[in-house]
Design goal:
InterPro entries: Kinase-like_dom_sf (IPR011009), L-PG_synthase/AglD (IPR022791). The chain is mainly alpha-helical. It is built from 32 helices and 10 strands. A hairpin with a 4-residue loop joins strand 4 and strand 5.
């Protein structure tokens, strides 16, 4: 065992030292939430058997003559693996605390499996018996699979990566074996895995888990393998997820800085990487790829910057050790700007000028650092100011990314020496015109997380720094787009308008309020709950579209929150205008000029329009069921046709009336005609900035994100509409639902009405009637669909809007 725990000898069993500190990780919250969602969805169909259960059971029965022996072996192997990890914890020095973790997880999983089974109709005695049984009867949830999964997942952060993967494989194989042996069905096996993961996540949140960092002895061994023998190694605080920093002294006395991306680091696993990419690492959602590619990327960009004359820390070695840990070794800095801030006189004008020369030279070479803060601006041992840590750097970077580097440097130096000195140094390096180009990036959203945190403790504000820079540049401060506020009065007007719209739509649809009320009372509310839980997925796809529409460095989570905030602002602004207005304000907070921000917003909206029109054309030309295909008939067919004609007539009248009012009312006509020259002049004046934004259309990945995000949003909306229709007893082909949702979204988005209120309800009712849905069900479906996708989302949209304002994203 000693060899197995040694620094690189034989096989590494444990991911970290026995006394490694534990912490509670957001990734466990993510796993817990995902598991609970899976259990909630499975609960709607449990205990089965469903069509999927039958299909899987039939397949495994067909394989029984060949693989029947495997089911017993795999089911036993699942238990053996759990026993092995228990023995490992019991026999390894300093690991006995892990026994408590496994016991807690096992108890939670057993309770969860029994409780989930009881909710689905399985009695507790059957759930308890399934813990020791290896065959029929079929039980939902598979208790043994749930308990053993919880034990293996709980110990997973403590184990090296190969053993984690082996454990996951055994869990999957054991779940399949449970189905093959008749101990559970597909729903029961999937529910068992979800229950086990949820129990392990709760255990980790309560008791903590290690990060999987390398020990000092393991780093020493890895350095020897890379040809860098050392005399001393000590751990340093990590700056970001997935990496570990060490200070080392080479045998020749040189001080070294060692960055390690550990093979077993928990933050480098799939879920940890996802969470870090979405919320922490850099200013955009991205994955760097393998550990090898990350260290090679950083080494290459460091050498490229040095070749351009930028002072950097010399690269000593880069590579991957035998156990799979990636290391980047550089000379150690003498001090960082963060350390020098304690004595401002240590940061003289010469150092400020040297830092500005380095960043300007980096930008002139087409490289953006992407993560400038006071911890990465350093003094080398020879006294030269330098840049370090090029992990987030990009070659051939856009002008905006390079200008963002300069904005971050201005704020970072202001934190060290104050706004006046930092602005003077910027003017000396860039000149007034160059400083003016940096002004749009003096926004909290354009700064790094660490810099934003440091700003909160200063006696001066970022606004004061911006005003000082504006005065030094001799220009006017860039203005932000104004947003209309949602007030109690606007909500009241919306509520009254919605009530009137529903009365009018119900009347014109030929369905009395009593029949609509009866349809609502007969609704299957569990499916309406599913529709409500599924509706936020629409914003998840919209966020992907927004990320694709811009070349700016954005993180996914703030963009996702932005989409929820759009749901809130849409209460007072028409849907398309609300999305454009809030996105422009959001982009401006990242230093993007107004013209470019507007273009990004327009590109996003236009891509959605293209997807909507394409869907309509595909359905119309492919022969899929559309408005001409009726799935139901009956006594209401004639009345539905009459009411459909009435609703269609109303929609046409509304559109024509809007155009007539705009043309005949002098005040409105003058306002429109006056705006045309202003818009033309603005387009001409800011055309260059707008054209630069169109570069996003030349990037296949960006274009795919835009179109894919909008397509996904439309399909999920159609799915939610179908769930609402099914809950009320109606049915329609999915292509019909897509056609209805797309046509109504396209039409209502063009109407100057907040949220398309009234127009959308009439459109959904008309569309559903056009495919043969009875009037009462059509009106009821329109009501509940709009409730879960428009009238309720502003509740959490208000929270999202407050979050964006608190973090100064809008």
């Amino acid at each position: 065992m000693a060899n197995a725990l040694g620094a690189g000898r034989l096989v590494r069993v444990w991911s970290s030292a026995p006394d490694a500190p534990r912490s509670r990780r957001p990734t466990d919250v993510l796993l817990l939430a995902a598991s609970l969602i899976v259990l909630a969805v499975l609960g709607l169909a449990a205990p089965g058997p469903t069509g999927v259960d039958t299909a899987v059971a039939t397949l495994l029965a067909w394989l029984e003559p060949v693989f029947g022996w495997l089911w017993n072996a795999a089911y036993a192997l699942l238990a053996v693996c759990a026993v092995v990890v228990v023995l490992l914890a019991a026999l390894s020095r300093g690991r006995r605390r892990l026994l408590v973790d496994q016991a807690v997880a096992a108890v939670l999983a057993f309770a969860g499996a029994t409780g989930a089974g009881a909710l689905a109709g399985t009695d507790a005695a059957s759930s308890v018996a399934a813990l020791v049984s290896s065959g029929p009867p079929v039980v939902y949830v598979a208790t043994r699979v749930a308990v053993l999964t919880a034990m293996l997942v709980t110990v997973s952060p403590h184990l090296a990566r190969p053993w984690r993967y082996a454990g996951r494989f055994v869990v999957g194989l054991g779940a399949v074996a449970a189905i093959g042996l008749g101990a559970t069905n597909f729903l029961g096996a999937l529910g068992a895995i979800a229950t086990g993961i949820a129990a392990a996540a709760v255990t980790h949140l309560v008791l903590g888990s290690p990060a999987g960092r390398l020990t000092v002895a393991q780093v020493e061994q890895a350095l020897r393998e890379l040809g860098v023998p050392t005399l001393e190694v000590r751990a340093l605080p990590a700056r970001e997820a997935g990496e570990t920093l060490f200070a080392a002294r080479a045998v020749d006395g040189t001080d070294l800085l060692v960055k390690v991306y550990g093979r077993d680091a928990w933050d480098s696993q799939v879920v940890g990487s996802l969470w870090a990419a979405l919320t922490v690492r850099g200013e955009r959602a991205r994955f760097r790829g393998s550990r090898r590619s990350r260290v090679e990327h950083e080494a290459a960009l460091t050498l490229l910057a040095a070749h351009a004359g930028v002072p950097t820390l010399d690269v000593v070695a880069v590579g991957v050790a035998e156990q799979g840990d990636a290391l980047l070794v550089t000379h150690a800095p003498a001090a960082s700007l963060d350390e020098l801030r304690a004595s401002p006189q240590a940061v003289d004008d010469g150092m400020l000028a040297a830092l500005w020369r380095a960043v300007v030279a980096l930008g002139d070479a087409g490289i953006a650092h992407g993560a400038i803060d006071d911890d990465l601006l350093v003094l080398r041992t020879d006294g030269v100011a330098a840049l370090m840590d090029f992990d987030a750097a990009e070659s051939a970077a856009s002008l905006g990314d390079r200008s963002m580097d300069r904005g971050r440097l201005l704020v970072t130096t202001a934190l060290a020496v104050g706004p006046e000195r930092s602005v003077r140094a910027a003017v000396a390096a860039l000149g007034p015109d160059g400083l003016a180009e940096v002004l749009p990036y003096l926004q909290p959203a354009a700064l790094g997380r660490r810099t934003r945190a440091d700003l909160r403790g200063q006696s001066w504000s970022l606004d004061e720094l911006r005003q000082t820079a504006v005065a030094a540049a001799g220009v006017e401060a860039p203005e932000l787009e104004r947003l209309r506020r949602v007030t109690p009065r606007s909500i009241g007007v919306l509520a009254v308008g919605a009530l009137i719209a529903y009365v009018v739509v119900t009347t014109l649809a030929g369905a009395d309020l009593a029949s609509v009320a009866d349809a609502l009372r007969a609704a299957q509310w569990q499916w309406l709950l599913v529709a409500l839980l599924l509706s936020p997925v629409i914003q998840a796809f919209s966020a992907a579209s927004t990320l694709g529409s811009t070349t700016a460095r954005l993180r996914y989570v703030p963009v996702l929150v932005l989409q929820f905030a759009i749901q809130f602002i849409a209460l007072v602004i028409p849907a398309s205008a609300a999305r454009l207005a809030l996105e422009v304000r959001f982009f401006q907070k990242f230093g993007i000029p107004a013209a470019t921000a507007i273009t990004f917003g327009v590109i996003d909206s236009v891509s959605g329009f293209v997807v909507q029109v394409s869907l309509i054309l595909v359905i119309a030309l492919s022969g899929l069921p559309g408005f001409t295909s009726r799935l139901t008939g009956g006594s209401e067919e004639t009345s539905s046709g009459d009411s459909s004609t009435s609703l269609l007539l109303v929609l046409v009248v509304v559109l024509v009336a809007t155009l007539v009012v705009c043309l005949l009312v002098p005040r409105i006509r003058r306002r429109l005609t006056r705006r045309i020259p202003e818009l033309r002049a603005a387009v001409v004046a800011q055309g260059r900035d707008a054209r630069s934004a169109l570069a996003v259309l030349r990037r296949p990945a960006k274009l795919g994100a835009m179109l894919g995000g909008n397509l996904g949003a439309q399909l999920v909306q159609a799915g939610v509409l179908g769930i609402c229709l099914n809950a009320l007893g109606g049915e329609a082909h999915f292509s019909q639902l897509v056609l209805i949702n797309t046509a109504v979204s396209l039409f209502s988005g063009l109407m100057p009405v907040p949220g398309g209120m009234g127009v959308a309800e009439a459109g959904f009712t008309l569309g559903l009637q056009a495919v043969g849905v009875p009037s009462a069900i059509a009106v009821s479906t329109a009501i509940v669909y709009r409730l879960v996708t428009f009238y309720l989302p502003p509740i959490w949209g208000a929270v999202a809007m407050r979050w964006l304002r608190r973090h100064d994203y809008v």
